[in-house]
Amino acid sequence: MLGDLLEVLGATEIGALCPYCIAVWAATIPLFWYTTLHNLQHEVIPLPARWRPATELAVRYHWVVPVVWYPLIALMILKRVW
User: Fold this and answer.
1) Which domain, by its residues, includes 25?
2) 59 phi, psi to nearest 5 deg
3) Closest CA to 9 of 81, 78, 77, 82
4) Which residues does the UniProt record annotate as the domain Vitamin K epoxide reductase (predicted)?
């Protein structure tokens, strides 16, 4: 989560984006998302039973978060550059 904070700060407040940081973000997004989904699905992270359907829905549509996340970051970067 600290990486996400640094993403936003780097793209908006600090105004400095290095290629290494962008590459790390690109790798961290799916790593974080799919690790979290795996842990939720295998109950490593305990959740109440009423949240189980939401977890199954997230697992079924696992691709949505990265597909939305990457363009949002690209838009933040483009907004900062222009």
Assistant:
1) 2-81
2) -70, -40
3) 77
4) 9-36
